[in-house]
Fold each of these.
Amino acid sequence: MHRLLSFVTAAALSAGQAVAGPYSTYSNDPANPHDAPIHKNSEEIRAWANAVSDYSPAPGVGVMYQDPVAGFGSLGDLYDPLNPPETGTKPPFHGVDELFNGIVGDLTDSYGFIGIDDPGSITVSFPAPIYDGPGHDFATFENGIIIGGYLSAELAYVEVSTDGVNFARFDGISSNDAPSGGWPGYESFDVTNIYNLAGKHANGWGTPFDLADLQNHSLVQSGDVDLQDIRHVRLVDIPGSGYFVDSQGHDVLDPWITYNSGGYDFRLSEGVAGLNVVPLRWDGAPDETGAWATPNWHDGNSGGHQPPSRARMVVDVEGSIVTVDRDFISGVGEDGPAGSVQVDNATLVVDSGIELEVTNTVTVGTGGLLQVDGILTADNVIVHGTLSGSGAIVVVGSVEIRGVLSPGGSGPGVLLVGESIELTEALTEVPEPSALLLLAAGATTVCWFARRRTPGRPACCGSRFGRGIIRGRSSTCR
Ligand SMILES: [Ca+2]
Ligand SMILES: [Ca+2]
Ligand SMILES: [Ca+2]
Ligand SMILES: [Ca+2]
């Protein structure tokens, strides 16, 4: 929705009262069986789209509204080629300071026309794939406002892709044949007649989409779009003049024509929410034994894509929260970057009572948080970010911690058991009372603490700090 309310001078339209349809209203409508909106603070949201891979607004979007990452990226609107702006003039609130040259077919200027220029679009991607799980799988958010009991918001087609090349579009419905309220540029509509189009819910409420709706789409049938591995969502603005139609042939109407911040308004931080997000990505083929060594961690997978048994799992998450709430084994495979877990700018939680077994290395980047309330077993653990929790980490090889150690929870605190444990000088925070217990089974515990009893002298080796204990067969300070 555009936000130039000062533009609004015209009288309210005479409302054409639409007959209410079966779909949800513009906000809180939890009982609607079709498309009950998702609140932006809902716990159902597991991850937000966190990257814009393509932003192609229609011509004429104002400079202030071309920032989908930090602000709003409006998709723009298109003029009627049969009723163009007057040559040599600039319509009020046209977003770019350029006079119309009178050439409707000029594809290089800031004036776009229906049927000539492409409507604006934006493509966003997620930290981890979205999959077709139970119910709705993701939700789109616009900033529509309620005018006269109806919603003034701008609609967009919704498409999904696995490879970023092939996009499958949802069959949307919009059967309104007139506005129900509002005024030119701010027409409001009865959204109970709108379904599976982005923008039909008010600011703060997301429109839910179920990937299962696409299972008969030709690109899904051909395998070009994998509903269990959706990486991209594209929103294509619908200039609501009636030129563009829904899946049933209705002319789609929305506020038109809109300017400056015209068209669908996208904002990355609250743009597209993943509801069924693959918590951890798997690679590799099922092994011939068919045995799944641990319970299927990906319980929500109701589609035909079965998790390969004893898979090599590669966890590579950024910007999301991954909770391991059932046991699984990572890295049984033979080759590739098998069995490594990389957590960057993200949180990996191993729940209490759960064992996460990683064959190779767990690496937590500087922006990452590893919270272990259960048991984490790995060859090596490298923490440049934060290590927290009340569980245990059992390491066959080495432990290197350069970040923040923050034992927490009601348990005994983080227990590290490793062949060798290296706590580096960057480790500065050990809260007191700390219930840290470090046990090195092997020859050496090398530790270095910035927290010193005497300035200039390390004080930790084989000794106590807070309530913590460090033990090793031999210890070295450096
Ligand atoms: Ca807008
Ligand atoms: Ca043009
Ligand atoms: Ca689904
Ligand atoms: Ca519009």
Amino acid sequence: MKAGKGGDGYVGWRNEKGREFGGPAGGNGGRGGDVYVRGVRDYTILLKYRNIKDFAAKNGQNGMGGNVWGKNGQDLILDVPIGSVLTNETTGEKFEVLKEGELIFLLKGGKAGLGNAEFKGPKNVAPEQFTLGNEGERADFFLELQLVVDLGFVGFPNAGKSSLLNELTRAHAKVAAYQFTTLEPNLGDLHGYILADIPGLIEGASEGKGLGFKFLRHVNRTKAILHLVSLENENITEAYKTIRGELATYSKELSEKKEILLLTKTDLVTPAVLKKKIAEAKKLNKLVFTLSIIDDKSIKEFKDSLIKILRELEKESGEKKKSKKGKDEAVVFKTDTAPTKFLEERAERAAKKIKSKK
Ligand SMILES: Nc1nc2c(ncn2[C@@H]2O[C@H](COP(=O)(O)OP(=O)(O)OP(=O)(O)O)[C@@H](O)[C@H]2O)c(=O)[nH]1
Ligand SMILES: [Mg+2]
């Protein structure tokens, strides 16, 4: 990436009738444009840059006669998804893009050159001096995307986590009637919010049992938790508490996160049982929802509520951050393979959508 060069200063003279040299009138150059990045909620944007190698802000214009200054070069503002971490490979400096709309300064444009008018003084009435504009800063940047997960799904194996992710987003997570179908976290995008389906947890997960341990690390960095409890469980309180216990043992921070409790597979119980179970669940958590994957209406209702909750949460965390004087808690989720696959799939779908619109 390259910031703009400053425009050169100009040597010129005032042109007045009857006087050969009316004094110096060479204008200054304009300053070179700076380079910034800006956080956006569009995770496909990086694909746009795939074939571009050089990013440059505009150069400042050279100064002109008649004391006209060159225009400043336009800044380059490069949109990148929130969660991007840019490393300046020359200086090693790291920049984290955590908020939507946040502008981060990367490279300084070159200083403008001075025209000869600037050198005028009592002893120097006809200065010939001028200066050239400076080059802008330039550096190679390494960009890494650390996705910020808004909602992490937790629950026992077979609770219906992957099925739900597929319904709420365009993800294609593997779903099957056996335990530990999901081996790696799956990601989905719900109106710009990132949802992550974490492999099933079991009792002892926090001590390394099952697959859970490796992934609790990921949930620990999400903004909120969606706790799924299947109504197949005879005792939903016990099922709920077992998972809560694991989360708490793993980390206090995790157990203090905002949690939504979702009772799944409502189609497997009678309306009367469901009513009882909801009452039971409300004693465990104030935010209780129910749903069945085969009932589209229940999915739609949950989806609408979820979007509202995620928006609220975003507002709250924005306010919290402000009150902490800008001190940010990075809520970061990283997998080696998922994001690339996720981005490619999204781009493909977007391309298809555009085609079908034509
Ligand atoms: N009857 C019924 N079955 C469901 C519902 N949701 C999911 N299932 C089934 O439950 C089984 C498990 O679903 P998954 O979505 O794979 O569950 P998971 O929580 O991702 O499981 P793991 O990946 O093993 O942790 C599958 O056979 C699904 O078809 C539901 O609402 N009703
Ligand atoms: Mg799964």
